[in-house]
């Protein structure tokens, strides 16, 4: 895909759609809106694109496919991943597909620019200028030239920044922390509301060299305490396997064992959280190098530490619908479905300086409703990324990057419809929902249960034939499983009506 020449920033900025944040949700929204005829400006405060997937952090792009084979979210995010894999523009390491290649940043910019998006790096979106409940402009700091600048908004804003500073300064209603069980009836919610959120993490890269490398922990490095991968009540004596992302037989590994900040304000206390994470990381590496595995780690060195903290949760802005744990666990179908998820309800709960990762459930594939992707009180504000309208528990599954990218693409289509009809995001739901869904399907998105009715699609008239078929993972009974934990089985193929289920139990007492 050819990219356009480098462009200077115009002295007067205006666009139909302004996207704040270049995580995969924001990138997908920007590309999609531009492909459908909008002028788009994307503001990114960092020097690289990609958000948590970018070279400053490198978190792998996961989604529903992690727990549901063949359920990987489709659309623009899949297009980007396939191209990066084809070009081998990734960091290849042991076991985990974390990626800090600067070429991934280049690919994201290439696709955005080819679609017509004006991409502005190092541009911190500081505040919204509003009138009568509508965003008219965004004031941002050009961190490269030390200038305060302004971009006029002709149609709508997509806040995909994570913390939602523009949505916040526009007066959009939001929530923070854990809801009480009485609010939404979620089975895993606490009895009382509190301000706890999921913790923040760092990533690091370590490599094997041809010589011995010493590690002297920086001053202030705390004693090692078990974190990820450990029994929660005891320190493992052998952490080769417990430190699951480090393997002495590999050559290059990512570490991701640190987490903190869930009992703090992840916006106001971000500096302190990052400093804590650094010291925790040094403690983990010191434990490997100088305590538990001196011989195996003799030639290993700490090569790189992410300059950006991997934040999982802060503000969650409120739309016309708040998606809940109950919705996702029931696989609820919505008339305004625009994307889907299926990752585990995976909530990272900080416990002191450690992390307690709780998998509440593995939900079936569930819908993400469009009403959770726009502000309920700022009329031209669309929401993308981890700040969308969900509860704390629902965020445990929705927050995955590939899931959010699929929802971000839907937001891009909605922005284009706002321009086409001169309407608000809410009016898209009220008057143009079927067109939104059909446009998404045409643009390679997938919506569970929604049929493509595009008369111009030749594939609808195609005929598929097969000489044989085989059921997926149809296995013989090969042993007994103790009922020492909750047990279940997932059905991959079943008829319209399931007439009989047989369950075999043995009591050896």
Quick structural summary:
The protein is α/β, with parallel strands linked by helices and 509 residues long.
Write the layout of secondary structure elements.
Blueprint: E1 13-20, H1 24-35, E2 40-43, H2 76-87, H3 102-115, E3 117-120, E4 123-131, E5 134-142, E6 147-159, H4 165-169, E7 174-175, H5 181-184, E8 204-208, H6 239-242, E9 252-255, H7 270-292, E10 300-305, E11 316-317, H8 325-329, E12 337-341, E13 346-351, E14 354-359, E15 366-369, E16 381-383, H9 392-398, H10 401-421, H11 425-431, H12 433-442
Parallel strand pairs: 1-2, 1-6, 2-3, 6-16
Antiparallel strand pairs: 4-5, 5-6, 7-11, 8-9, 8-10, 12-15, 13-14
Shape: globular
Query: Termini distance?
Result: 67 Å
What is the rounded Rg?
24 Å
Indicate the multimeric state: single chain
Task: Give helix and strand order, one letter per element, not per position.
Answer: EHEHHEEEEHEHEHEHEEHEEEEEHHHH
Q: Overall pLDDT, averaged?
A: 90
The total strand number stands at 16
Structural class: alpha/beta
Largest β-sheet summary: 7 strands, mixed
User: Which percent bin holds the helix content?
Assistant: 10-25%
- What proportion of the residues form beta strands (DSSP E)? 15-25%
Low-confidence stretches: 229-235
How large is the count of helical segments? 12
